[in-house]
UniProtKB/TrEMBL annotation:
Pfam families linked to this entry: DNA_pol_A_exo1, HRDC
Organism: Endozoicomonas numazuensis
Protein's UniProt name: Ribonuclease D
Xref: SUPFAM superfamilies: HRDC-like, Ribonuclease H-like
Gene Ontology biological process terms in this record: tRNA 3'-end processing
Enzyme Commission code: 3.1.13.5
Family in the record: Belongs to the RNase D family.
CDD domains: RNaseD_exo
Main location: cytoplasm
Superkingdom, taxonomy of origin: Bacteria
GO cellular component annotations of the record: cytoplasm
Gene (UniProt): rnd
Catalytic function, reaction form: Exonucleolytic cleavage that removes extra residues from the 3'-terminus of tRNA to produce 5'-mononucleotides
Keyword presence, S-adenosyl-L-methionine: no
Ranges of residues in domain HRDC: 214-294
Amino acid sequence: MPIEHPDPIWVLDSESLNHYCQQWLELDAIALDTEFIRTDTFYPIPGLIQVGTGEEVFLLDPLSVQDWGPFARVLQSKSVVKVLHACGEDLEVFNILTGCRPVALLDTQLAAAYAGLGHSLSYQNLLKTLLEVDLPKDATRSDWLQRPLTEAQVSYATLDVVHLLEAYQLLLKQLQDKPQLQWVQEDCDALLSSPLFPDPSEIWKDVKRAWQLRPQQLAVLRKICEYRELEARKSNTPRNRVIPKGSLWPIARDMPDNIRSLSSIQDMKPKTLRKYGEIILDLVEQAKDIPETEYPDQLPAPLPKAARDYGKLIKAWVQEKSAELNIPVELLFPGKMSNALLRQWQNNGQFSIPESIKGWRQREIAKPLILALKEHKTDQR
């Protein structure tokens, strides 16, 4: 049996959007969600924006609304909390339509984790856990650019925000008077201040096994990765359709100088060769010709055994803290933070807090963790 929900109010023109935005600016909080298509493009193509007020649901049509200025003002209002669930790609959609991201954001997936409900909880499971509501998800991958939308699509889109504010209020009640409420807000603020897309000139550092390459090979890798990212954005094409991810490291290792050599590279597709083959070869040559003084610094090798031993201590300490606070390890102190701590020790010979660890994690986790590690080191003497 379908779940009952209010009939949504369609917002199909700029005048209507402006009218309703004036109303939403008077509220304490609104629920937001987006539907989009991202099958053949780098950027998401907005298909629908849902706004829930607790009593009404509005469906905003990006295919017909022209002026998103009033909605941008709602997103930028500090007095209206914008409640979303797992909002990563939603932020991209808002940025495409309005040129901005929301302030005063609360992500219920993060809040649920801090409330002890689990890591990366789906919206379905959030509502089932908090409200005993079983939400269907049968329209998730449908065509949100078709018009008219099907009855199932409209129902699905409406349900995505009908209960969100109620869940938000319950989560606030569970976190009330706990430091975790401030931690959630810090994480949401950090999410809004971080770039939507990576720096093209830095992407090469995240390629697996890049540490195995020599400086000249790294120069090739940097050049290829930067071109791939910029071309994907410029042509609005998925990255893997420019150059497959699995080809990046082999291109840098082998530095091919002809199409035949390039064609033998792992994961290299005929379509890529036809469209980008000569460009890739030219990029390789450009990178090989740069002065040695401009080569990237070699990346550090995997941590030595002594660091891995400390890594086990860090893991055990964080797991104990995770159980104490009832917060998932992945959220409390992600693996990249542990690695940053170990790199700091490897480079300096002592434990100190890396610049990348900030806010409440620096105060509540990194500082006491470093004290524990120093005490362990003293005990071992």
